[in-house]
Amino acid sequence: MRTNDAGDRLSDCLAIVTEPTANPLSSVAQRFGCAVLDHDTDIGGRYSALSITGLLPAFMAGLDVEAIRGGAAAVLDDFVENHDTAAPTIGAAVSVGLNRMRGVSASVFMPYCDRLNSLALWYRQLWAESLGKKGEGTLPVQATGATDQHSQLQLYLDGPADKMFTLLLMDTAGKGPSIPDDFAGVEGLSYLKGRTIGDLLSAEGRATLETLANNGRPTRLIEIAEVNEISVGALMMHFMLETVIAAGMLGVDPYDQPAVEEGKALTREFLRGGRGQ
Question: Which CATH number fits the domain 46-254, given the four candidates 3.40.50.10490, 2.30.30.240, 3.90.550.10, 3.40.50.300?
């Protein structure tokens, strides 16, 4: 029986989440005697964050998974009751409409919070893999505020007008370390007197939002009070619904990824030595 570096048996410290079907992961679990936790076969990978694949690691990390699901449920319930006017419906309609009517071919998601960078990466996969079919879809771009103000904003403002922007701002005013008075006393920096790092980040986010709008770039604002389980669950459900609705408008299946499967099949073929490398 395989053991880890501490000498523990893998079967004592490893559980495998996989579909209850014959597949390589279930074979690995059986071979090493590991516990198997069934994953619902009706939930695809990028939509599974609110199932066992996402919530079990969250629970193990000490997060409140009931609050995550509660935030998601609130968005879903509102959509069920007000589907024509709910935020995910409007977001999908705007995205598809801008693509059709104004040639917008990219969707830039820019959270002003480093803790939400992983959310932006997940959104990038969700949007790209769900909609990029039959010549449809727009390119999702992950940007980080305020970092990418200095690496991408020039293109966004003065380059091709082919992008829509989603800025995710958090209420950071008055939060974080105070900016030392030594800096505020420097000529040209008096505006920093009495300010915090949170004030600076908030001002940069609002300035970017207004600058994009003033330059005719289609921009929407999503605001959250803080990053917690409820807000993250709500955001994830919003973007999943928005993506599925957009897929319906574009006439594509949001749940498959046929083009990706070709690459997976070729990878296995190369590893088996079936084709020269």
Answer: 3.40.50.10490
